[in-house]
Amino acid sequence: MTAYVGLLRAVNVGGTKVLMSDLKAVCEAAGFEKVRTYIASGNVIFDSALSEREVKQALESRLLAHMGKPIPVMVRTAEEMAAVLAANPFPHGAGSRTLAVFLDAPPPADVMAGVTHQTVEEIATGAREIYVHYGAGMGTSKLKIPAAKRGTARNMNTVAKLAEMAAAL
């Protein structure tokens, strides 16, 4: 069995509501074990014998059937989630002001080419992530990163908790 973290994109913001109890039930119906959710932003931790690709397909197809619309899911193993945390290029930044934007594939080499409205924000890339440090906070930032549109972001505090929970499975 492999411990996985599933990160749902764009839920409980912008109109798509997913109850964490429903997410847990969807995962259990998919055959995942030791299912746990973390805060109401679409984070789920579980064990599965399936591959990452199979986990993603199972989750997305079951969420489509349950919600009636597609909900993209980014999937990481427990080890990958720990590596995302360890690779944070902005350890000086507050965990609540530093994000990892999780992607399905490595960020494009020209990720910075389309960035607009960058002022004090710092941006770096990871294996399948884009890291952003919002030194002045996210509330007033106008930063746009086109390559991040297909991903889902979690702050480093959440990444740390998810890594901890996944490691404990």
Helicity level, as a percent range?
A: 25-40%
Overall geometry: globular
Please give the order of strands in the largest beta sheet. 2-3-1-4
Order of helices and strands: EHEEHEHEEEEH
Estimated structural class: alpha+beta
Provide a count of the helices.
4
Total DSSP E strands: 8
**Sheet with the most strands, sense and barrel status:** 4 strands, antiparallel
The Rg value, from CA coordinates, equals: 16 Å
Mean pLDDT: 94
Strand content: 15-25%
Distance between the termini: 10 Å
Low-confidence residue ranges? none
Description:
The chain has a four-stranded antiparallel beta sheet, with helices on both faces. It has 169 residues and is α+β, with helices and mostly antiparallel strands. Helix 3 runs antiparallel to helix 4. The protein is globular.
Please outline the helices and strands.
Layout: E1 2-8, H1 20-29, E2 33-38, E3 43-48, H2 52-67, E4 73-77, H3 78-86, E5 98-102, E6 122-125, E7 129-133, E8 152-155, H4 156-167
Antiparallel strand pairs: 1-3, 1-4, 2-3, 5-7, 5-8, 6-7
In short:
The chain is of the alpha+beta class and 169 residues long. It has helices spanning 20-29, 52-67, 78-86, 156-167; strands at residues 2-8, 33-38, 43-48, 73-77, 98-102, 122-125, 129-133, 152-155.
